[in-house]
Amino acid sequence: MNQIHAFAERLIPLPVARVRAAVTDYAGVRRRILTPDFADYEVRPGPTVACVFQGQRCEFEVSTPRADTVVEADRHSSLVFTWTVDGTGDTTSVRLSLARDGANGPLGLLQRVTAPARLRLVLADLLANLAQASSGVAGGSPHSDRP
Description:
This protein is α+β, with helices and mostly antiparallel strands. It contains three helices and seven strands. It holds the Pfam family Polyketide_cyc2.
């Protein structure tokens, strides 16, 4: 299998503690920042988050290996989201990365060429929505018109 990777980063003009709290607020903020790529979102004990991501049923186990990192690993596939939240003063840097196994052969080549760009848009939308939700400003996805 070949790995598919994508990431997005954003500076949010808020204290790091506030943004970290938003990233880990699965029942509130996180539900509100989801893009149309997510469906059937459900918070379960564990902490575990179940949803459908781009047509794939997922059950993410949440862990915090470091104070600045939240890892969401799907129990049924190789899909992993990693949130890294760091900053000083009133500015926070958030990096969101995604990794998953892709196909081999010609399909794998196509996935490695096309998937990262599409996934970067999804991750950038999540971060834009996080910035809005963290600051208390309502709003939609900046790429809500994308296919």
